[in-house]
Amino acid sequence: MIRKAFKLSVISSMVVGFLTGCQLTSSTKSDASLLPVPMFKEVTNDFPRAEKNLRQWDTPVVADLDQDGYPDLLMNDHGFSLRVMWNNKGNYSKPYDLIMGDMHGISVADFDKDGNQEIIISRGGGSGSNARNSIIYRVNKNRKFTVVPDFKEPLAFMRGRTVKFTDADNDGDLDLLNFAFPSKEMIQKDKSESYIYENNGTELILNNVLPTFVKADGQKTLLTDFNGDNVIDLLIYGHDYVRAFQGQGDLTFKQVTKSVLPTKYRDVNGIAEIDYDNDGDFDIVMTRGHEFVAGETFFNEQTKTLGFYTKRGKFTFDGLKVGDVMNIENLQSQWPNKALYLGESAYEYMYPGETHSGRDVRLVNSDTLGFPDTTEKKGTYLGYVGNQEWRLVVNMFSPSSGILHGVESYPAYDHKPGLSDILLENVNGKYVDVSVKAGLVTAENNMAIAIADVDNNGFQDIVIAQRGNIVTKNESVVYLNTGKKTFEENVITGLISTELGARGMGIEPVDYNKDGRVDFVQGNERGKWHLFKNTFDIAAKHNFVTVNVGTLAQDKVSALGALVNIEACGNSQVKRVGSSGATYSLSFDQNVHFGLGQCQEVSKVTVTWSNNVTQQAKAIKANTILNIGQFN
Predict the structure, then answer these.
(1) What would the pLDDT profile of 231-286 be if each residue is shown by its tens digit?
(2) pLDDT tens by residue, 567-587
(3) What one-character-per-residue DSSP string does 24-74 give?
(4) Residue 143 burial (CB < 10 Å; 0-12/13-18/19+)?
(5) CA-CA-CA-CA torsion for 401, 129, 268, 403, nearest 10 degrees?
(6) What predicted TM-score, i.e. pTM, was given to this entire model?
């Protein structure tokens, strides 16, 4: 489907301003500065990323690890390393390797109230062959890391997936959700590996487990509060349909899917909470789409580029009319099946460097003549079979993908059509589907979601990372909130990933330079990390306020999970500290950003910590940062 560009008339009617006199007005005056130009610009000087295509995991995790007021980043290059990028007052440092190996979910918080942040990392289990428990690092204000020893009763050994700190019993300390990809043995015993740990002040003690419904990769979790009782509820998804669990306030959860959700939503890749209508409760947005399937191909007729994806067996890609030279870009396959076998003798190609990241290979036909009779060894086989044609066979269990250049033609693949995303409005604790009415109607294959007020008009917008087709650049979509319970789609975003062979994966908001405009960090599975700076002219003309939430001095209650409400010129907004569209992880950005439109002052700010203690501030000038709570 071809999306239309954002037209001037649409932008003009959408700009909602809040005047100093607290009157709500709509601007309809044409303005050349509001013409459709990219909203974001990729920056590299402030973001010295690793220039490799890597199998990343989930969204970047945003957290102020050294507590200097600037949000740092944790970037998970799945199976390679977990990297830290320190924020030096608006400039990120070169990535620092914290831990190498197979890592999944990440969560950050000072769970033991010692004044330092802890980072919990869910470690992978080698597809079930190497069960391990989550590891915890402590980081001090001098950016030094130490490993926290195992508790007296260590965290469960598992094929780790999701870790999220949350105060599940509202007692002012942070408990832990620690969910596993369930093993066959536990499924056969009808036992759950979705563990809930209680914080006893110094250690995390197993309290109970969720029911056993979670199978395969179904541990994706959103923390929200759908019934408005200030107790955290869960939406769990990924495998099969989305399920809702209502928190009971004692670290237990009751499944209430049928009474909360209007239907069984499947093929959901991301969920985020959003108060899209500013009525004080949390609505949700779901992104949906199909994953790649074994043997799927994409062909770009204009650039003569063929992309393939396969897994779980042997697939042959024949009739590759390329000519004398084969150029392969971003060839990805996992250990231990990374071998590339060439020609009739199937001799192994010797890569000049490391092989975990995507490899670029140039081969000539005279070095790859013929094709072997058997392809039983695990790996990738390539040979020149004559008449300008090549043959490619991939035989492995783990996912493999790559880009072949110069392919003259290739049969069209019958791809599944895209799926529409879902906006569910919260009506008295139950969700109502308002997707069509709100303007979320485009059917695509979408992966990840982020919520932020991109244009600073006082209403939360939706940013969606698309899966893409691996043979063309991939641009994320922004739905701008009109303030009238509708969204306008803007595809001229500038949120463009140009690397081929990559799939859109995760996107996270962060005002990294603290200029009052929300920027985004985006990751692409089998691709690169990107930092996109907000250059949207409308956002620059609108006002903002940032509420930096610290610890509640009484009992040292963490800011994570705290609710921030503001009132400005008749408009009320609410956000949760750490709320994220991340599937397995959880960010902890204490800088909570609110757009104000043309409003010049916030009349009241109310922060409610997880133990339901509140603090207020009044008469906050626009375009300032308000510190509320205690800071070390």
Answers:
(1) 999 999 999 999 999 999 999 999 999 999 999 999 999 999 999 999 999 999 99
(2) 999 999 999 999 999 999 999
(3) EEE-----GGGSS--SEEE-STT-----S-B-B-SPPEEE-TT-SSS-EEE
(4) middle
(5) 0
(6) 0.93
